[in-house]
Amino acid sequence: MSNELQELIYIQIRALIQFNYYLRSSNAVIPDIVTVARRRLTKHLLQIGKYPALGVNEWLRYLVEPSEHWLGNNDIFDPLSPLWEEGGLSREAEWFLEAYGLPEDFQERPVLKVLTYCREEDEQHGYVLFRSLLTNSHLAVINQKTLTEAAGKIVDSFIRHQYLSCYEPFDEWYIHKKCPCCGWSLSIHNGQWRCGRSNTCSELEGYYLSKWSLQLAENFNFSSEDQVYRLLPGIHRFILVPGIPESRIYQRLSQRYEVELYPEKDEFDIRVYLKSGTLDLDVKCFKRPRHLVEYINKLSNSKREPFQTNRAKFVVPNEYAFDGYLEQVNSQTKKYQIQAVSENQLLRMLEPKEKFR
Ligand SMILES: [Zn+2]
């Protein structure tokens, strides 16, 4: 049953994304996936005794309502969240997509193109540089000069071009503030500053040594002549924000061990060179433990295999690993004999082993 529900939600989200493109384009034909999604939803609605979504309007009306109104009881999707809000996917829908969907569903195109290119061309150095620039909070919102300088570090012209297309002009920078966590632009929403629609940074406030507050953020400090750019919202949401704990873990490890970022063209996030061999880490920033469980369930056997040995581990950054998080993940992935650890557990775990050698 739960797989059917996952599929039902997934197809609704894909259809909403396509429907949004359709609304913005001059295309007169509603995408087929909308009809497919509406029929799937109607079938489900009838099963749970609700009124069917006979037309596109009814379909949309359901999807902007809390999911409990159209999904019924379930343990997959937050009952109070809709799929669509404020002209975009809801935060819950984004989390869902990240856990259950494919990278193509949520990653911005330049990132996917560079990954494919670097895997084909065996271009490890260029890939690491590209990703490091995108996860640098100092480069989240920048002027033309800084953008040109950053891009100038990339030797490969294809990667450089894709890097530039990860930014959009940001002329209204002066009405925004600078996020003290990720460097991206804060907007005011219901009287509160928030960081992107997902506002993950606000949830990290107060966790793990953070001494900042979004509500006390500072203005951007550009001049009126500056042409300003910022990272695309999708890069901010899916690369920059999760990249911040990732680089912190990298930094912490690099103080004691030899470490490598994105080894084998992003096969893993971090590789640690220990006396006993290498340890590969996949840093996972899922807000909910069941999303990490689902991510692990969905992996192919060959992708999952390294994590069933001592050679690879899933690591949950401290600010995500709330009490009970890892217990939940580990008890639900027991059948694979996979052990996910928190950032601090990882550092503690490595220490004695290395010390006594
Ligand atoms: Zn932020």
Automatic annotation (TrEMBL):
Domain of life: Bacteria
Domain REase associating with pPIWI RE: 243-350
Name of the protein in its database record: REase associating with pPIWI RE domain-containing protein
InterPro entries: pPIWI_RE_REase
